[in-house]
Amino acid sequence: MNKKAIVFLLVFAMVIVACGDTTEEVAVEATEEEHDHEDESTLEQVQERGFLKCGVSTGATGFTEVGDDGSYSGFDVDYCYAVAAAIFGDYSKVEFKQLTSAERFTALSAGEIDVLIRNTTWTQSRDTELGNDFGPTTYYDGQQLMGRVADGLSNSSTVADIDGLRVCTNAGTTTEKNITERVGLAGGTIQLITVEAFSEAIDKFIAGECDIVTTDGSGLVGRRAVNDALNDWVIFPTSPISKEPLGPTYRSNDSQWADIINWTVYATIIADEYGVTKANVDSADLEANPELGRLFGANDGELQTKMGLDAKAYYNVIKQVGNYDEIFSRNLNPLGLYREGGDNDRWADGGLIYAPPAR
Amino acid sequence: MNIDIKKQTRVIKENLFSSPVSTLLTFITSYIMISFFRGMFGFATAPDKDWLSVLNNMQLYMVQAYPESDFIRIWICVGLGFIFSGLSVGLWETEEKTSLSKLCLTFSKIVSGIIFLTIIAPTNSVVVSTATGIREQVEVFSYAERIPLLSILIGLLVVFFLISKINLSFNKSLLVSIYLFVPIILLWIMKIPTIQLDSENQRVFPDPLMPIANSTKIPWTLIWISFVVAYLVGVYFKNKKQFKNAVSISWVLLPLLIFSWIFKKPLIDLNELIRNDIPVFIGFLLIGVLTIYLINNKIVEKFYSYYLGFLVVVTIASLFLKVILLVKAALLLLLLFSAIIPAVSTSAKGKRSLTIVWIVSLTTTAFLLEGGTSTTQIVVPGSSIFGGFSLTWLLAIFGTYVSFPLGVLLALGRNSSLPIIRGVCTGIIELVRSVPYITWLFFASVTMAVFLPDGVEFNLIVRVLIVTAFFSGAYFAENIRGGLQSIPKGQFEAADAIGMNTVQKTSLIVLPQALRAIVPTLVSSIITSFKDSSLVTIIGLFDFLTIGRMVIGNQSIPINFIGHDRENLLFIAFVYWIFTFTLSRRSMKFEKRLGLGER
Ligand SMILES: N[C@@H](CCC(=O)N[C@@H](CS)C(=O)NCC(=O)O)C(=O)O
What is the ipTM of this complex? Predict the structure, then answer.
């Protein structure tokens, strides 16, 4: 081979390696700057536009689903509704943008969406390098794997047991990186098949084209719940191979906007602590519970108006969407995901769901 | 049937088995085609495939989240489309008479085809076991099951053979209108499996049989009847030239009307309309008419070129000023008009027709602009108003509608003798063509906002439309330039000899010939933009393909369609195929009538 060919191959290989690894980051950096120029705050933009642009998943059972009439439902979708209820007093003022894992951060930086609520894991690099900030975690998750009993797998299997198998997951995720790392540590080799949307991975698994699918445990449980009546599939290992705190994500450098999103989440959690639900919010005793009073805008709702919101903003959230427990149970209980005894239980009951006081 | 067996064998022999190589090729291709069919058949009939995942999501596929209360608007759009198709088919139908034996021949060809396919269909298909992930063979279509079907089909063949002996010929339109009623009858009597939920929201198995399109039966029937009526009207007015012209023009205006007024339900501010738009409209109307009638006045003639120059400046300036859109559009129109007035309005007749054209074009522009720029009153819960097939269709049709005139202008500009115009047009064409479409889409979604003036914010779909128009416009321009170059020099000289000016030369001599030469490329670019529109998924728009690929495979409530992506993909491929195939067939007929490729 002559010199030119070698140089060409080297450059080509570098390009491929570079693209393969950092597609998500490169695209983002290119578009990051323009947004610093915009002097309007996100809240002003959203209010002027009249609706919220919320980035959700292309589809994750229980988190984002589109019905046959085009309507949206799910845990993440409900948090989009909650933010809209806080800003406009009308939960339906949302435009959903369904994004794949690989596109989500680009869309956020480019201003295509105002907030990303799409089973997105809070990681150091995403928080620090991509120009994003993360809100409070709404769902504490962890990565697991799903395989078939017929392949000799069981609840107690570990990453070491999948040596030599075909593993499917979607591109641009923490999942993809975790599994490669874990399998490497366990000294095995796998054939990793990455697809664009997670539904393709599940489709391949059902069609027998992969032996294992892996993603956040919640995603697996949801899929198994509706597809595997005979318990031929197992989810393992019992304690997940990674931490996946999922929550809302927004562009950094706009702390007013960050506060609005954060306190929307906190409001649902505080309401849950007091047992205030969609149904009983009107009869809640605000005198006896001054914190609730402040949150629901009893005395001029100073706390909210100083944030740029309506005094009744968080009352509207609870009234129209519900508290944390309602959002959780409504969307995830049907899939067999429960709060009791898990990480997503109330802090008072040993879980991690905790909100700072409203004062 | 008067098939000459000997002749048939000769034809077959000559075409398929003329030499050892062609015999081999015949066998190889038929083997591939038969295997393809068997594979498809096995796939489609496998018991683990759920085709209702497609049927149940029809609404999502077509209009995504468009609210049900406004469906009437969609039906009107579809109905208009059908009515005008019917009219055109009737108007431009060439074949007049047909005979019973010819008809029987067509039918028996179809039936023989089905018999052949029934015989070669596979008995087994592949099912993947949920438990093991291993493929298993299941019998789906045993030979015993085929016997009744085959005997019915062969019986049919015999019947056709007998009927074909009757010597009877009739008008084709009669026949067409008879068999156009078949779908209506099928619509009301045929039943297919449909998803039903029981009281606990569980799907009932096996899926009960229900009439097709239970909820949409009435609109479809009405639409189909209007189609047939339109067809007959078309046949009746076949020889009326004006009618044909009217239909052709309507084809151009119809999509604009649909997208600006019907699909959208625009919110019109009456106050604004009376204060701004109507005075502007009347003003421009008067200026245009005055110019037409005063053109032969000595003083006007003398200063006409200054007037034109002034118009050019004002038009360009208006693009950057904060004036209502109608002013900008009307100025542009007035400029174009004033440029051709001196050439056309020399006679009284010319003046009259020019006045009519001016009034009609200004009115339509104003009307469409009013609808197009106002906000829609349709509230789509949580998504943009266009999605699914309507988005694909919008991108394809609008892409072509806008890009075609743009392409013509660019091509003419590139051939112009003015260096500035030539430079700009060449620059645009080369710039647009040297960057891939996907990059332009990213430009539309991410960067275009930076280039727009402050406060101007276009919807993503509009931005994509702009980019698409330029992209296919540039390709059109190059095709048209090819057409322009094919015109012999003598034509220009002849035009000069009879004293035509540039406008007349371009519009009467050059363009008609150039455009005629590019009809095939025109159709192929419509097809391309129809298919390319699926690329918009990468910037987060939900076109037809994306819905099937990413949305349906995730549905679990109340009915689980996880793992049924492939049925949906096949369905999408089929729909794309139907549309592109019909388009290219139509264009083949059209080319034949134009006599293309025969000169
Ligand atoms: N939490 C991980 C994975 C997120 C993820 O992709 N989750 C899957 C299923 S739980 C999903 O949302 N898939 C839908 C899609 O691909 O659009 C991350 O943030 O990288």
Answer: 0.80
